[in-house]
Amino acid sequence: MTKSIVATLSILLLSGCSAGRKTLVVGGKDSVQDEIAAEMLATLAEDAGIPVTRRIGFGSTRLTLATVRRGDIGIYPEYTGSGLAMLGLSPMSDPDAALQLLRERFDPLGLRWSDLLGFENDYGLAMVRDRAKSLDIQTYSDLANRSNQLVLGVEEEFRTRPVDGLQPLGRRYGMGFDRIVDVPLAQRAELYEKLIEGGTDVSLVHTTDAQLEEFDLLLLEDDLDFFAKYAAAFIYRDAVQERFPEIEQVLGQLAGSLDDEAMRRLTDRVALGGESPADVARSELIRLGLLSDASAGMERPKLEVAISPSANTGGEAGGVIRALRRSYPLRSVQLTSSSDPLAEVKDGTARLALVSAPAFFVPGSTDPAIGQPTPRSGVEAVALAGSSYLHAFALDPKLERLADADLIATGPQGSSDHRAAQAIVAGLGLSVQLKPVNAEDPRGLADALADSGADAAMLMQPMGNATVLELLARGQPLLPVKGWNRASNRLIFPYLQPAQLTAKGYAPYLGGNRFANDELPQLRTPLETLVTQLVLAGPGPTPYSRIGNQGPGAGFAPEAPPLTDLSVKRINAALDQTEQINPILPQAAALEPELPQPPEPVNPSASVSAFTALVLAMLAWMLWLLVRPERLKRPAEQ
Questions:
Q1: CB-based contacts of 483: which residues, under 8 Å, 6+ apart?
Q2: CA-based angle 7:13:15, to the nearest 5?
Q3: Structure confidence at residue 152 (pLDDT)
Q4: Do the domains spanning 123-219 and 306-591 agree at the CATH topology level?
Q5: How far is residue 18 CA from its own chain's centroid?
Q6: b/e map of 140-160 (b: 16 or more CB within 10 Å)?
Q7: From 306, 407, 491, 606, which residue has the greatest number of CB atoms within 10 Å?
Q8: Are 586 and 375 in contact (CB under 8 A)?
């Protein structure tokens, strides 16, 4: 069996040479640990002067190895346990002995194994601690005794692995689960969601996953030592060393550089903190002294939130920041002022953005299928933070109607203010020009609007917004916005709805002596205006080519992956909003309603069927006894 595998690998390697490549192609499987390790190698290689092409984010172990066989990638992170399994060999508990054997078996194939990196990313089985305690399960053998009552969650690849996969595990321990739930490797984080929410009882995990500690899960004991030690190293082709001699120095720098605790910490920053694997890898190389860049990577892991220059931490952003700090207690939540917060999220500069609903749409563009503005790609709503109201200020003291304005000033190009103004001008059919202005802070934006030379100013912001309060304190009158429901505005712009501004609504934000008697002269009577939702947004799923079964593609994953379902649910729980996000907005999958599951088919065993039949027969006999005619008495009894 082993000889046939070796022969097959040899043929594929010979047929897939790629001597013409001029760059080192670094690959990596679709897991956080592999992406970090691959990025560390790629970054160090570039620092050593090696030109690098990244193809990180492949699928299964078999698929990634196939790309090396064909020469489509030159090097990628792999594990000793998986290497043994690919050769059909039994698991080994000694990583050094396993590495020596793998080097002997792979060397004739033109493949080399580097020295070990220092961490082990072993397979394991985990349960919610309270659930395991209630069932008295601590080991795999304990689990086997109750497995027929439990649901197991695994990666798709694990179901098919012939040496260290689901079927061999079941045979070794005598496990037979009531049901198996599997997810694609790229969506492995969903296994934790299903486990925490009770969709599964047991889950396949990797021992360096940050979620194990984050959710205080119990890692069961592999008491029969089924799983091998999955010590990390790099597999690379002989041709790589020949074309890039510097690679030996790079691999030597990484040897032994990462222990289990370090990889768990780095995984936490990516999987739970939302940082990109590339940034995490670079900062770790700097910490280890392998990369010289004194200005980067030394700070506490950050969670950056892009906000409008007019936003203020004491107002609408304050509640969001407090909620995020509760959701991410180990992160440094920081605000970034931006004229277009969603653009910061799309390019990975910020992880989240606080915007009003109009910011999600391309101005002046209509989707012909629905007759509504076209949503911007690459972003999605993850939580509702509140409401934003249109504040239309009369900068010209003679102006009494918005329709009489010739020039309206708004917030920066691309901001919620500017995009809302574009929609309102279109919806009301105004003949007016918009003048976006910019500033670095709320007071500066108020100055820029007042000095713009415009007849009016539009701000789509929550009550209590710092720029709005500044203009109100200066006595700038507010203009009503009426007649919005005419024509088809409700259909074209469903995220904008009529509302009223009132002094009572502003009462919580009137502090100090800025307003006489805590009253707003502009709002002595309710003012007609428009309202929309204030939303916390994150990166959305971006379509890209993945490596398929027929060979590698050219696409890559976006720099900023969407937030995990668990993160979205934690943020929403912290914000505690009862209203749902308007369905016209692109939304995170975790916000979609859960459909009821159809009842599972009932397939009773033969013994259960026989017992059921016996019970039914007894019930029928008892019923007959109740309704039978009374037996006639015999003559002797008369």
A1: 428
A2: 105
A3: 96
A4: yes
A5: 36
A6: bbbbbebbeebbbbbbebbee
A7: 306
A8: yes
In contact, 442 and 311? CB cutoff 8 Å = yes
Closest CA to 471 of 392, 533, 389: 392
The CATH superfamily holding the domain 306-591 is: Periplasmic binding protein-like II (3.40.190.10)
Phi-psi domain of 274 (left: phi exceeds 0; alpha: psi -120 through 50; beta: other)? left
Task: Yes or no: say if 286 and 44 are a contact pair by the CB < 8 Å rule.
Answer: no
* Token pair recorded at residue 81: 């346990």
Paired residues of 366 in beta bridges: 373
Task: Check pLDDT > 70 for residue 600.
Answer: no
Query: For the whole prediction, is pTM greater than 0.85?
Result: no
Q: Please state whether beta strands 407-410 and 232-237 pair in parallel, antiparallel, or not at all (unpaired).
A: unpaired
Confidence of residue 605 (pLDDT cuts 50, 70, 90): low
Beta carbons of 464 and 316 less than 8 angstroms apart = yes
Average pLDDT of the segment spanning 602-627: 67
pLDDT confidence bin for 203, thresholds 50/70/90 = very high
CATH architecture, range 123-219: 3-Layer(aba) Sandwich (3.40)
pLDDT recorded at residue 297: 40
d(CA 559, CA 346): 9
Q: Which comes out higher in pLDDT, residue 548 or 430? A: 430
Query: For 558-626, where are the E strands, in sequence order?
Result: none
Residue 609 has pLDDT above 90, yes or no: no
Domain 2-120+230-287, classified CATH 3.90.1300.10, yes or no: no
Neighbours of 108 (CB within 10 A): 11
Say if CB 33 and CB 206 are below 8 A apart. yes
- pLDDT-above-70 percentage for the chain: 81
- Strands 372-375 and 361-367 come out as antiparallel
Q: Which of 208-217, 368-377, 601-610 has the highest mean pLDDT?
A: 208-217
Q: Label residue 517 left, alpha or beta by phi (over 0 means left) and psi (-120 to 50 means alpha).
A: left
Report d(CA 519, CA 254) in Å as an integer.
65
Query: Cα-flanking dihedrals φ and ψ of residue 236, to 5°?
Result: -145, 160
Q: Give the amino acid at 634.
A: R
Who contacts 477 (Cβ-Cβ below 8 Å, separation ≥6)?
393, 394, 397, 522
What pLDDT was estimated at residue 248?
93
- Asked whether the predicted pLDDT for residue 555 surpasses 50, the reply is no
Residues contacting residue 585 through CB under 8 Å, at least 6 positions apart: 357, 360, 375, 380, 381, 495, 533, 535
On whether the CB atoms of residues 353 and 562 are closer than 8 A, the answer is no
Q: Which residue do the tokens 């790229």 mark?
A: 186
In the chain, where are the structural domains located?
A: 2-120+230-287, 123-219, 306-591
Tell me the pLDDT tens digit for each residue of 160-176.
888 889 999 999 999 99
